[in-house]
Amino acid sequence: MPITAKFGGSSLAGADRFRAVRRLLAHDPSRKAVVVSAPGRRFAGDLKLTDLLYACFELRRAGGDWRGAFYAVAERFEAIRRELFLPASLTLPLEALERGLSGGTLTREYVASRGEYFSARLLAAHLGWRFLDSADWLRFLPDGRVDTAASYALLRQAETPFVTPGFYGAEASGAIRTFPRGGSDITGALAAAALDAELYENWTDVPGVLTADPAAVPSAAPVPYLTYGELTALGAQVLHPDAVLPVQEKGIPLRIASSFAPEKPGTWISSSVPQGVTRDRILSVSLRPDGVLILFAAERGVPEIPGALRTGAHTLLLPVSPQEAADAARRILAAP
After folding, report:
1. Which of the listed CATH numbers 3.20.20.140, 3.40.640.10, 3.40.50.620, 3.40.1160.10 matches domain 3-205?
2. Per-domain residue ranges of the chain
3. Residue 34, SS3?
4. 248-288 residue pLDDT tens
5. Whether residue 161 has a cis bond before it, omega within 30° of 0
6. pLDDT tens across 31-62, in order?
7. Of 222, 229, 235, which is closest to residue 284 (Cα–Cα)?
8. Which candidate in 2, 74, 256, 326 could, as Cys together with 32 as Cys, close a disulfide (CB 3.0–4.6 Å)?
């Protein structure tokens, strides 16, 4: 059973990151199915490619000058291609995208999906792997739901190793459909479930699920182990629920780790904590507008804390003002 690995935009922001992904994949040959996002920001203030693609569409629809945004997209991909010494494999599809935008024949979802499409094409060429267009296996129904039975059956026919784009799929008619922003995580989970993967790895720019926001709690560290239920209790701040359910239903472990520090273990999520593992009672704290959300280890129980509100099977909300939240979070994590 292959490992399915999904790489986020920060992991593919430039040619140097593509090289790092290649090294990471070479380290474990069982990583045979890869899902990618569009390249993310390279530096503070940089624009995400998906934002530029949405700008292309909206400017074209409004009759504005969309070509500046398009050329920024094209040059970003061309720069990655040149630095990786790859053949000019994107010339024709980029020209086709420009013609489609000029003629006003493309949908918003199609234009937005090209970031992941070009990203996957480049990584597949860099690895020497097969490029598998997600429009050829991830099947959407007309109402926007995923036809999981059809999608799984189609992907199981694919030869590995392959690289496939995240974020989008297609209806049976061929019309491109996209998930909400961040939807590449959903694609990754669906691919792992379809292939009955041994493990679903989600590679990002943080070393796992952290005990707190490091901006508020500098001592924040990765949580080594979580259950699916605990991860769900944290909400969409970590992963969209739809990016967890496909692997949870199949009992496939999920690992969240940093492609910038792949030697670190990250956070492992599964149906239960491995035998012999002892965890802290408080797993993490999250700052919210209405207070501090405290996540407790399922096996340790949720205590009674005066003034705190029970918000779920594993969580309490301590109501404090936004000005007090960071200090409260630090105190909670420091408590014995």
Report:
1. 3.40.1160.10
2. 3-205, 282-334
3. strand
4. 999 999 999 999 999 999 999 999 999 999 999 999 999 98
5. yes
6. 999 999 999 999 888 888 999 999 999 999 99
7. 222
8. 2
Predicted TM-score (pTM) of the model is: 0.94
Count how many Cα atoms sit within 13 Å of the Cα of residue 73 in the half-sphere of its side chain.
Answer: 32
- Residues present in the chain in total: 336
Helices 91-103, 49-61: axis angle to 10 degrees equals 30
> How many other CB atoms sit within 10 Å of the CB of residue 324?
14
Of the candidates 235, 251, 133, 115, the residue with the CA atom closest to the CA atom of residue 189: 251
In the three-class reduction of DSSP (H, G, I as helix; E, B as strand; rest coil), residue 322 is classed as helix
For the chain, where are the E strands, in sequence order? Answer: 3-7, 31-36, 130-131, 139-140, 162-165, 168-171, 176-178, 199-204, 225-227, 254-258, 267-270, 282-288, 291-296, 309-310, 315-318
